[in-house]
Amino acid sequence: MNHNPLKNIMLTKKIELTVVILTYNEEANIKRTLNAVSGMKNVLVVDSFSNDKTVNVARSFPNTKVIQRAFDNHTNQWNYGLDHTTTDWVLSLDADYIISDKLSHEIETINFEGISPEDIFNVPFKYCIFGFPLKGTVLPPRPVIFNKKKSRYYQDGHTQQLQYDGKSFMLKNHILHDDRKKLGRWLVAQDKYANLELVKYANLQHQPLSLADKIRTRTSLAPFLMFFYCYLYKGTILNGRKGLYYSFQRAYAELLLLLKLLDSRER
Fold first, then answer.
1. What are phi and psi of 180, to 5 degrees?
2. pLDDT by residue for the chain (267 residues), tens digit each?
3. According to the CATH classification, is domain 3-177 in 3.40.50.720?
4. By three-state DSSP, how is residue 258 classified?
């Protein structure tokens, strides 16, 4: 659906939000994420039985409730969290998403007169490497504010999409994607994500593909194109070694998927 500029809405009604955050061994991130929403009344952390200090850190925040569920997939984990909120409207965040002061103020001043329960609010991203915001990112805006009674998550490859039937409004200010976990965790995650993408493409064999999916499944260009897309087109070349690091990360993710696609075909 097309995004609608928020400035075109006439709003006079406020509602109460619950912040929902998924965690598993997010000790490196969760304190910064919760600090950024410490002024909000309701925060719900859905933890997948972390074995580090994630739960202890989360419970140290008086506005935060922690519930735990054994992990099977992100979609079920998100929807479980939605089912356990005390408010209809939610603000969904990953454990490495940081709400800036400007975005926090923008969210606090949203009023909901004339907004349908089917409508959602998107937020753009700034990707950080070691806490430093990059010039550009491949992350698209994500729906983060929505009514749980009218929206549910579904799996789409390695990621989760929000299904909704209303209008999509775009907030002006960014979420910072600032993951401080060690590289080894990122590498393990990429292997899992690539396996999920492999399943997705196997199920799309007889369906129309997007241009990006055609490049991934029908050529060997995706890793090279992704690197130059990030480094040159998105301008991370201006971020020095951090920009190079990010561009190689994205190229590696595409290379791993390509190897798995080739391996599956040869076998």
1. -105, 10
2. 445 433 333 334 678 899 999 999 999 999 999 999 999 999 999 999 999 999 999 999 999 999 999 999 999 999 999 999 999 999 999 999 999 999 999 998 887 888 999 999 999 999 999 999 999 999 899 999 999 999 999 887 777 889 999 999 999 999 999 999 999 999 999 999 999 888 888 877 777 888 888 899 889 999 999 999 999 999 999 999 999 999 999 999 999 999 999 998 887
3. no
4. helix
Q: Among 81, 143, 154, 92, which residue's Cα sits nearest to residue 118?
A: 143
Q: Are 145 and 17 in contact (CB under 8 A)?
A: yes
Angle in degrees, 0-180, between the axes of helices 211-218 and 183-203, rounded to the nearest 10 = 100
Q: Is residue 94 a contact partner of residue 142, using CB atoms and an 8 Å limit?
A: no
User: Can you give the residue ranges of every domain in the chain?
Assistant: 3-177, 183-266
Q: Strand 97-99 to strand 175-177: parallel, antiparallel, or no bridges (unpaired)?
A: antiparallel
The answer to whether the CB of 45 falls within 8 A of the CB of 58 is: yes
Nearest to 6 by CA among 136, 150, 103: 103
Identify the three-state secondary structure at position 74: helix
| Sequence-distant (≥ 6) Cβ neighbours of residue 138 within 8 angstroms | 226, 229, 230, 234, 250
Q: How much is the pTM?
A: 0.87
* Closest C-alpha among 33, 152, 136, 159 to residue 81: 152
